[in-house]
Specification:
Length: about 425
């Protein structure tokens, strides 16, 4: 069985490590306790947080003990890493609420039962620190010159780095020391922008405890087009189903660029590497099937099997996609065919040739067919760009259904948004 460290290396999670040989030796010695910190600046994490989350799940699956640390204490200050300006300061109440939300969210990915993993909040110890004792016992181990040389601070020095933010490295370093002393945690993992803070923690442990601890960073995940992971025209893709629906979540993955499919499968699914590597040679329809498997597996991990199946089915019906062939990705439980009952359940509405000749308003058709509750609602949706005839967006409430819209067929798809649609049949 591969160690957790080998799994992360083979799947492309690792950017930098303190000492590759020593970390491998650490994992060879038995189960490892590792931690990742999560910033409670919102009520939900987003797709950009999936790399650390998946890393912790792989650690747990390979017999190690992950610690998920929600920064209820450090969140009161704000991490300057990667930021050109100071973060908005949240109240203690806002942060406490966010911490609760993130805890529930992380529990969907990591099993915290029976001590298999721990969900911690650094407010439990940071808010109880005596400042004078902290400066004497912890602050004396930090070199100001080395701190100013860290990339996380360099970016901010030009515009101004306040003293509160300057203390962030000390607090994160102290977190690592606290977890090392309390839980035997000797490995911290995190984003590449955290490298300086993480090294500060390993050095603090070495100075205080005269023992080794290690750090591992993940690469910044961008698409093949150079875009930041999880950013779309609509905004951030959240892990909370109330903020980003499972259907929209599925659509984010299924619409990824061809060049990203294999890499994303390694990072964001649990499919075996040999099956993923086989996808490197897929083209055209089979590559689209691979995207469907990626979207299904990623949605299942974040939202559960039922939501993943529903999103898959809605996408298949909306875009007339072909089901994934049986011999592709055999480890995936994605449905291999659309049941007849699903297809027959699609709502249908008939219009006569006379209706079309008389000039049937699409807004009126939406209301008559039940796609909207009223004509006024249909007009409002059209103004918002939410009504489609086939794949054509209806631009004006004055637009009428035309014979050309059927493209020689006897039916077309009238769609509201991405999920609600019906089939319009033209009577002969």
């Amino acid at each position: 069985m591969e160690s957790g460290y080998e799994v992360l290396k083979n799947r492309g999670f690792i950017e930098q490590v303190t000492d590759d040989a020593l970390i491998e030796q650490q994992f060879a010695g038995g189960p490892v306790t590792c931690y990742i910190g999560f910033d409670p600046t919102a009520t939900s994490l987003h797709i950009g947080s999936l790399v650390p989350i998946m890393a912790l799940t792989h650690m747990q699956k390979t017999g190690n003990r992950p610690l998920a640390l929600v920064g209820g204490g450090t969140g009161l200050i704000g991490d300057p890493s990667g930021k050109t300006e100071m973060r908005q300061v949240l109240t203690r109440e806002q942060i406490d609420y966010n911490v609760q939300c993130l805890g529930r969210q992380l529990s969907r990915y990591i099993d915290f039962s029976e001590g298999k993993a721990l969900l911690l909040n650094n407010a439990d110890w940071l808010t109880k620190i005596n400042y004078i004792e902290f400066l004497r016992d912890i602050g004396r181990h930090f070199s100001v010159n080395r701190m100013l040389a860290a990339e996380s601070y360099k970016m901010r020095l030009e515009k101004g780095l306040n003293f509160i933010e300057f203390n962030y490295m000390l607090l994160q370093g102290y977190d690592f020391l606290y977890l090392f002393q309390r839980y035997g945690c000797a490995l911290q993992m995190g984003g590449n922008d955290q490298w300086g803070n993480m090294l500060a923690g390993t050095e603090l442990i070495r100075k205080v405890e005269a023992k080794d601890a290690h750090a591992l960073t993940f690469p910044l995940i961008t698409t093949s087009l150079g875009q930041k992971m999880g950013k779309t025209e609509k905004g951030t893709v959240w892990l909370d189903a109330e903020l980003t629906s499972p259907y929209d979540y599925y659509q984010y993955w299924v619409n990824c660029d061809d060049a990203d499919v294999v890499r994303f499968m390694k990072l964001f699914t649990f499919l075996p590497l040999e099956e993923i590597d086989a996808a490197a040679g897929l083209k055209d329809a089979e590559l689209n099937m691979a995207k469907a498997v990626l979207a299904y597996e990623a949605t299942k991990i974040s939202h559960g099997t039922q939501a993943a199946v529903a999103a898959w089915r809605a996408s298949m019906e909306a875009f007339h996609s072909r089901p994934v062939e049986e011999d592709l990705f055999p480890s995936s439980d994605i449905p291999r065919q659309i049941p007849d009952a699903d297809t027959s359940a699609i709502a249908r509405y008939k219009v006569s040739a006379g209706d079309i000749e008389d000039g049937l308003l699409i807004a009126s058709l939406c209301a008559r067919a039940g796609l909207t509750n009223s004509m006024s609602e249909a007009k409002r949706l059209i103004a918002q760009g939410g009504v489609y005839v086939g794949e054509r967006q209806v631009k004006s409430a004055d637009e009428k259904l035309a014979f050309d819209d059927f493209g020689g067929a006897h039916e077309l798809r009238l769609r509201r948004g991405k999920k609600k649609y019906l089939i319009v049949e033209k009577e002969s």
